[in-house]
Amino acid sequence: MSRASDRCSPTAIAYPNRITGIAAMCELFSMSSRYPANISFSLEEFARHGGMSGPHKDGWGIAFYEGGDVRLIREADSAATSPCIEYIRSHKYPSSIVISHLRKATLGAVNLSNTQPFSRELAGRMHVFAHNGDLDNILTNPDMLLSNYHPIGNTDSEFAFCHLMHLLQDIWQRGAAPELKARYQVVSAFAAKIRPLGPSNFIYSDGEYLFVHGHERSQPGKEGLHPPGLFWICRTCTPGHQRVEIPGLELEYEGAEQKAALIASVPLTNEKWHPLDKGEIVVFREGERVPC
Length: 292
Known about the structure:
By secondary structure, this protein is an alpha+beta fold. The chain has a single domain (3-290), classed as 4-Layer Sandwich (Glutamine Phosphoribosylpyrophosphate, subunit 1, domain 1), CATH 3.60.20.10. The chain has four helices and 18 strands. Strands 1, 2, 3, 4, 5, 6, 13, 14, 15 and 16 form a ten-stranded antiparallel β-sheet that branches. Helix 3 (156-168) runs antiparallel to helix 4 (180-194).
């Protein structure tokens, strides 16, 4: 049985720490793949971003989808010193959709309830959301209805997610998944609604599709906030290729040709990562971009 580890066309060569020095914003990473992959967050680089060499010391979390359910591991402490990181390194969970978040607290106390990703059940499956940015006055905005969904913590990000879940209720029914077009329209309307409130980079999944919305964020050498807020890349991976590392990430798979889409706040290798335009939404399924 052959195995490849994080080697996909085109050639990948790891950058040095790209996230270091980007101040006061959270970091996002996600993966969508054709077949479940053993993705291990060694977090040697990601963890340093979470407290050692970066400002993101206020919590971290990783969601691994397994069918319609999700294995969610979160901590309110720095990832750089967390004993749970070693646990994740030694327990590789096969998953086709992974969403992770490193937190820099700007609104809400540093505690578990304010740690992302957030998850909620709707129509018999788990929905997961992670956000990077600050949404001014969203907690008092009368247009942000919540219906049956209420925040456990007090962050703008979780409040926004509850509003998204409120919007999604109309198109989801147990046992009858809506068409992609209907899902995209809801996510697009939600994104347009929160963009005027502040930086709105987010990743959302319903366990089948992965929705990625890019907006703006702090950029090295620039004042203020500018796009891109997220980058993505799709790879075709074949067994037997030479192992190439991505800092903080190990991706392993067995058997047939694999396809994988990676999404990150900044490029993790010197391949050609695609920046998302301001307000752009990209959708992935089974490791490939899906036209909408």
